[in-house]
Amino acid sequence: MPRTVHPAQRRVQLSAEGIAALTAAAGRATGLPTTGARLLKFTNNAVVLLPRAGAVLRIAGSNEVRARVPVVVAAARWLQGLGLPAVRLHPQAPNPLAIGGHLVTVWQAVQTAAAPATASGLAEILRVLHAVGAPPPPDLPDWNVVAAIRRRLGEADGVAEGDLAFLREELAAVEAMVAALQEVEPLVPSGVVHGDAFLGNVIASPGGPVICDFDGVSVGPREWDLVPVAVGALRFDYGTGLQAEFARAYGVDVTAWPGFPALRRVRELQLVTSVLPVLEANPALRPQWRVRLETLRRRDSSVRWTPYPAADHWPADHRSADHGPAGEGRA
Prior knowledge:
This protein is of the alpha+beta class. The chain is about 40% helix and about 15% strand.
């Protein structure tokens, strides 16, 4: 059960002031210093670095993400028990914390290396994860990205009805394509999947790459973990050879699998809908969201998407200067 620290009759709005208040409350609850706290990103979660504490707060930004917090915590503890290269929950903090109507998890910050994370480093982590024979946490859900997208559509904030109508139609088409995958021979055995295995969820540390963000951990088709890099290479300007490097390191190329077009379409819809619940709270997301929506509507794959930016309403001295691929929306 989450520890309730700062009860509220109404949920604290995730404005700059609200995030600052939640950060301060988390600091009081854990004893961790919050001086110099800065917002690293705000898409599905508001992610706040506490530099003096060597800690990171993740504040769930929607009902969909809040509902998955127990899974996130269970997955983190499972991965730690296996010794896999993954971020760790902070040992000084109860996890999760219920503060101001939100669920907050507290993590140990990872020292970053000078060189960026690589596709081959991510592939090696996934090879190890996919080879784990230990039983997963008992409450780990079955993979169901379609249901998650539907819930985010239901939480859309500040989105025109015409846009929502298009996205619902797209979801219906995607759902039919996913159902048809039952007739396609699997590329790799099913099992535990990370669920959002793109380069932005890998931290290059001096000791090697470390994976983070466990909102999507579930049991299902492991091909899904191979799709984000492939879609990233097709949709984003991340340089040439990204997918080839990843496929060589993992051992198979998902783009050659007959089921890839269906999962590519799911991933692209996920990258458009992931921020729907927080578009009003974080208007900095809207220009890039509009680019993604309109190019998806036109079936225009020639336009390159860019990572979602950090929140522009956060006070300037609290904003992160890190806007590389790791700034992408962990969708």
